[in-house]
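User: Design a sequence. Structure:
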């Protein structure tokens, strides 16, 4: 029997009709940049998730800094483990709210593909050097649209691409607006990103002996908890409770609804939001901008400046897939450097000496 005759994908799409009326159904997707035949087994969003997981950019995240550059330890968070944690938190929330878990997962796994080597230090350097500026969320979209798959892109659905490019506001230091993305699934990925990094960055800072658990603001820990597990659980529970209205009704039941539908949005309660902001402010003050990291930060800056200068003068040394789009040498150099891992960037810069 032909696999298409089993109607596996169609049955999965039928199950999605029982999701919230606010959920994005895969067969209602706005489509891809280039038309292609549907998969006989997977829905459109499941297919996007798999394309992201099998991409080279996703694999390279395992050697990209989250916060601590070249840490001496096996248990520090990397961009890869961060993305996996975001995905797990987001899937839990999406499932509880009866939204599309597959779409949420695809956005979560792909949201940081455009992050540079050396974490936000790398992003700052490329933003300073490149005349059009650099934002990792926009680079993530550029990767899935153009650079991956040997310069052909991954041809993802509109909804996944929207969630990826709108997951972040560069420079924003408060948690207040989750409404810029076009889907509730994208909003979940966005808020889960913050829940994940606020908590695992605290763990890494304690592991590195930069802070102690008792240093955390008591106004936040008294509400959210005194351990990683407690804080994650309380944040996720609060988001689900405050966003419960989006669980809505499946499409078939909307016409029969006799109760008013609540404003659909993903949110935290005021008290929990203030506590989360307090922890985030603490991290910026004591961890992200700490005095003790200046030497390694400056080394990372010098590495990226050296690479930018060299490849700007030697475009012929760039891999061919980075020369397929546009005629701007600087843009191609930025694409290449942004895709490097910490280890590869360091090794290439040392060879250039």
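Assistant: Done.
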């Amino acid at each position: 029997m032909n696999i298409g005759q089993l109607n596996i994908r169609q049955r999965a799409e039928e199950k999605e009709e029982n999701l919230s009326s606010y959920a994005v159904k895969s067969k209602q997707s706005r489509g891809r940049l280039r038309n292609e035949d549907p998969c006989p087994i997977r829905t459109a969003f499941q297919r996007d998730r798999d394309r992201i997981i099998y991409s080279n950019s996703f694999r390279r995240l395992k050697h990209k800094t989250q916060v601590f550059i070249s840490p001496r330890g096996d248990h520090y968070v990397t961009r890869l483990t961060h993305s996996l944690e975001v995905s797990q938190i987001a899937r839990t929330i999406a499932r509880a709210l009866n939204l599309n878990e597959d779409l949420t997962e695809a956005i979560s796994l792909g949201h940081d593909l455009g992050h540079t080597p050396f974490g936000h230090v790398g992003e700052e350097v490329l933003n300073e050097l490149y005349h059009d500026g650099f934002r990792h969320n926009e680079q993530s979209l550029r990767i899935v649209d153009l650079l991956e798959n040997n310069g052909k892109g991954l041809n993802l659905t509109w909804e996944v691409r929207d969630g990826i490019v709108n997951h972040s506001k560069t420079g924003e230091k408060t948690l207040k607006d989750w409404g810029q993305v076009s889907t509730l699934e994208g909003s979940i990925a966005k808020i889960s990103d913050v829940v994940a990094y606020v908590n695992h960055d605290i763990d890494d800072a304690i592991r590195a002996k930069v802070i102690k658990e008792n240093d955390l603001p008591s106004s936040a820990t008294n509400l959210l908890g005194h351990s990683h597990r407690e804080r994650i659980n309380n944040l996720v529970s609060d988001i689900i409770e405050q966003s419960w209205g989006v669980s809505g009704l499946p499409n078939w039941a909307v016409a029969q609804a006799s109760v008013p539908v609540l404003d659909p949005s993903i949110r935290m309660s005021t008290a929990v939001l203030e506590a989360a902001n307090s922890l985030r402010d603490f991290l910026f003050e004591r961890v992200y901008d700490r005095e003790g990291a200046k030497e390694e930060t400056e080394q990372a800056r010098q590495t990226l400046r050296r690479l930018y200068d060299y490849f700007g003068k030697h475009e012929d040394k760039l891999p061919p897939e980075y020369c397929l789009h546009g005629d701007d040498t600087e843009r191609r150099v930025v694409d290449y450097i942004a895709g490097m891992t910490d280890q590869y960037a360091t090794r290439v810069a040392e060879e250039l000496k």
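Residues 40-250+261-292 form a domain with the Hypothetical protein af1432 fold (CATH 1.10.3210.10). The radius of gyration is 21 Å.
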